[in-house]
Amino acid sequence: MNIMLTQRIGQGQQGMCAAVVGLQRQRGVALFVGLVFLVMLSLVAIVVMKDTLLETRMTTATARHEQAFEASETGRLIPETVLVAHVFNRGWPVSWGGSVPDSAFDLNATFKHRPEWKNLLDPGTTDDEGLQTCGGVGLVIFYMPQSCGTHADNYNYMPADWDPSVIMTTCSDGSASCASNRQVKTTVAMIRDGVTVNKGSGAAQSQGYASIGVGTAKGGSALYLQIRSEAKVPGNGQAATIAQYKLNIDH
User: Which InterPro entries does this one have (predicted)?
Assistant: First the structure.
């Protein structure tokens, strides 16, 4: 009787040991499977993060390009505001280093709503900014063919090589002054693209000579300019726009 009881107890202990060993083995497999899933999830997370970072960079680059494009478009408007007075007076105001009286330009009225633009064009405000010089001799002129230095015959067809006419530094938020990491650098180049006679000028001129109505002789002509504006914004955003500008001359 005792012998049989002892055998049963021994068998029970062996069964318990086998169960413990099996449980340990199962725990080892579960740990391995968990590590595999963890690695897979980590790889998926890395791929998703890379895609997210790429999309973020693309969105940022697009936003900076749009900002640079808008800045380049705005930059063209500043020198255009004084083109008529410059061509009519054949020169620049005395306060900017020219020979024409300031009253002929009426700069305060021209830049009444944006007085800072007057400073942006002033060549004496900041070194190397504002209106540029023509070959180091005098301020650039827009009513005569390009004469700054020596250029190749195809100069007019190489916008990237055009000499800068105006260089300006503004703030990306529109404020009067800001840190260098918020500054927008704009370079505007203008070259003469030709002159044409306005429609009906010949007949108007003949009529003017034939009668006292000299006003009918003011058919006028048009000066065409190619304007290239390039802007660089914070974050290495850069854009350039080119447009043709027609300036009517009836004086």
Answer: PilX_N_dom (IPR025746)
